[in-house]
Write a structure and sequence with these properties.
With about 260 residues, this protein is an alpha/beta fold. It has a single domain, classed as 3-Layer(aba) Sandwich (Rossmann fold). It is about 45% helix and about 15% strand. Helix 1 links the parallel strand 1 and strand 2. Helix 1 packs parallel to helix 2, helix 1 crosses helix 9 and helix 4 runs parallel beside helix 6.
Length: about 260
Amino acid sequence: MGMDLAGRTVLVTGASKGIGAAIVRRLGADGATVIAHCNSDVAGARAALAGFPPGRAHVLTADQGDPTAMDGLWQRALALVPRIDCVVLNAAILVNSGGIEDGMEAWQAAWDSQWRVNVASPTRLMKHAVNHFVEQGGGVLVTMSSWVAQRGSGSQATIAYAASKAAVKAAAQTVARHYAKAGVLTYIVAPGVVRTQMSVDAAAIVGGEAAVTAGLAMGEWVPPEELADLVAFLATGRARHLSGATLDVNGATYIR
């Protein structure tokens, strides 16, 4: 069943592939105006927006490896539309090295890069979005975290990734607690193993895709489209008292 998002504008980061592209396609199908952010894959972002009516699809580039670039991204987004109703913080990287057992140079690189992309940049954009939402009387913030933020990573090599996903989750929860009365609805989505290239790469260091699949309760990876369905529902703003929740999407493999 489709969601009625006509008249609502949504900014989605990391929209050129995987989960982000699926979210963009679903939001567009439900009538939203979408601002699709990408680092440099403009073709991928435009492909996700294919078929959108004129005026309802925009692509903006910004390097999420530079947190200060989020200031310009936000300003350019507001130059395109009068207001933004929902922001989906989806863009992230996963570095499959730099763990406990690796050298200090790899450790430093993994922590530095994932801190910038997965924490410093999305929380900086979060700051802009929340202030905007407060000014306009409300808005929706959806932060894509991961089940590793709750249960830890399945590999010591990706300890920095797990920590980054926990950090951005805590930031979103802080927003939820302090801005609920201002009409800011905040949700954290914590996927398990999703059918994306990032998950394929991560599986390679823990025994391969077959080994990962064997450990899943449903015996299958989460389709990005299911996450897109969830985000589209949250973007409607109808689930007000769900604000602050972390929504686990992992096919019953991790239950708490």
